[in-house]
Amino acid sequence: MARALAARLYWPGWVLATVLTGLVAGFMLGHALVLGRFVEWLLTAGAPAHGLLYPAFRATSGRGGLTVFYAVCGLQVISVVAFLVLALASGRARGAAALAAAAGVLWLVAHSASGFGALERKVVLATGEVPVDVSESFLRLNIPIHLFHAATLTAALGALLAVPRSALRRKD
Fold first, then answer.
1. What whole-number distance in Å separates Cα of residue 66 and Cα of residue 113?
2. Which residues are CB-neighbours of 10 under 8 A, at least 6 positions away?
3. d(Cα 38, Cα 49) in Å, to the nearest integer?
4. What is the pLDDT of residue 124?
5. Tens digits of per-residue pLDDT, 102-117?
6. Would the CA dihedral through 155, 158, 163, 166 be positive or negative?
7. Sign of dihedral through CA atoms 117, 122, 124, 130?
8. What is the pLDDT of residues 38-88, one digit of tens each?
9. For 91, phi and psi rounded to 5 degrees?
10. What pTM does this model have?
11. Among 30, 37, 158, 163, which residue carries the largest CB count within 10 Å?
12. Whose CA is closest to 101, among 161, 147, 156?
């Protein structure tokens, strides 16, 4: 019964995990190339620039975009883990699913465990001068950590995209 249900949900689970992982990988690459660099520019342009411009931007952009971003990121993590469960239960592409789940969760673990998540929150929620130690740490870690996120998510996406090929090989 459980194996039949897993088999029925396998391909929809794969599609969801693949789409969400691709989206979040794009988010992280975009952050590393554009938004992260904008925040760095604000920090290096001087405290008044960051203290006035970024809070004004945040206030006019609303919480909707950030809420959607967090929701998509959370769903991505849940979807790769759920796909791993489906792969294990159905006996299909277990290796690729395990790699996708490990890499698909690693970015979030690294974000939190490194302390960068808390540091980033201090910078983007600042309404005035950002303390020098916080600013320096942020500037040192921002781009490398988001490139790491993009790389791990790309590895997860690659593993997910290999799943249909492994299914074709099994039929031969």
1. 21
2. 86, 87, 90, 92
3. 11
4. 82
5. 999 999 999 999 999 9
6. negative
7. negative
8. 888 888 876 566 666 777 777 777 667 788 889 999 999 999 999 999 999
9. 75, 20
10. 0.89
11. 163
12. 156
State both tokens at 93: 């592409």
Residue pair 151/24 in contact by the 8 Å Cβ criterion: no
HSE toward the beta carbon, residue 15, CA cutoff 13 A: 4
Q: How many residues in total does the chain contain?
A: 172
At 91, list the tokens.
Answer: 């006996």
Both tokens of 158, joined, read 């690659």
Residue 164's pLDDT band, with cuts at 50, 70 and 90, is very high
Rounded to whole angstroms, the Cα distance separating 4 from 60 reads 49
Residue with tokens 């001087």: 46
